[in-house]
Design brief:
The chain has 120 residues and is of the alpha+beta class. Helix content is 28%, strand content 42%. It has a five-stranded mixed barrel with strand order 1-2-3-5-4. The longest helix is centred in the first third of the chain and has 29 residues.
């Protein structure tokens, strides 16, 4: 009986710790936003030609925002578009003071799209 009570106490404590850990991790997910972004791709390679980083620069009339691209399968597809203007859909997370873009889909711009400048 004594062992059963001790085992149940340990399980209860362990379960409580797991619940607290999940609650603390959840707010980070709230900072994730999915959207469309149009910007210029910049690829960095090492001496052997291997891609080491991809940045995505989004500019408007007043600001420039640089995103580090997650180098998963979709993100690596941007490596073929160095210095190209590309539209992507993806999610953005902020980690260690930088914005990280995880690409979901890529759409290449052919230059025919018109961008409207907002009226003042």
């Amino acid at each position: 009986m004594r062992h059963t009570v001790m085992l149940l106490t340990v399980l209860l404590i362990f379960g409580s710790i797991l619940c607290l850990a999940q609650e603390e991790a959840a707010p980070e997910e709230k900072n994730v936003s999915r959207a469309m972004y149009t910007g210029e791709v910049h690829v960095t390679k090492d001496d052997a030609g291997k891609v080491t980083a991809i940045t995505f620069l989004v500019s408007d009339m007043e600001t420039e925002t640089e995103y580090m691209v997650t180098l998963d399968d979709e993100g690596m597809k941007l490596a073929d578009h160095d210095n190209d203007l590309i539209t992507v859909s993806g999610t953005v997370k902020e980690k260690m003071g930088k914005k990280w873009l995880t690409v979901i889909e890529i759409e290449e711009n052919d230059g025919s799209e018109e961008f409207e400048i907002p009226a003042e």
